[in-house]
Amino acid sequence: MSGASEERPPVPEPLPHPVVDNHCHLDIGRGGEPWATEEALAAAAAVGVRRIVQIGCDLPGARWAVAAAAEHDALVAGVALHPNEAPRIHAEGGRPALEAAWEEIEQARRRARQGARGGGDRAGRLPHRRGGPGRAGGVLRPARRHRQAARQDPGHP
Does residue 109 fall inside a structural domain? Predict the structure, then answer.
């Protein structure tokens, strides 16, 4: 974060109605230090953000999201492999590593208390954004897999 201030912005005015933050990464902080979860939730609640969907888009992030949601009623875990993460895992460990990662994400999804499902934010629309030419299939396959898992979930509408 070259040239960026490490200070947090000023606290905004409270919202007129309670809301849910539907995509947050509390585990990613500034200067390498995450914001204490209790402090972040208190600050959010003070301005009207009553619930937060904590997104875990890689294996460490998914583990963190599920553990944090288990400890804090204001958090809901949404877990997935980001469409750029799956090709990286495959490149580093081949198909066995990728299958193991998918299984861990599926287990994390089952453990997530409130049933948020992965793959809904930008999955399937990223081939042009990162990874360069030739990676479109590697980006789209994870999106398809998340949609399949969501459809098989008995709680899916």
Answer: yes
Contacts of 28 (CB under 8 A, 6+ apart): 34
Share of the chain above pLDDT 90, in %: 55
For 42-80, the pLDDT digits (tens) are 999 999 999 999 999 999 999 999 999 999 999 999 999
Count of domains observed in the chain: 1
Residue 6 within any structural domain of the chain: no
Backbone phi, then psi, for 127, in 5-degree steps?
A: -55, -30
Looking at this protein, which amino acid is placed at residue 123? A
9 occurs within a structural domain:
no
pTM over cut 0.85: no
Asked if residue 30 is part of any domain, the answer here is: yes
Give the Cα separation of 151 and 59 in Å (integer).
22
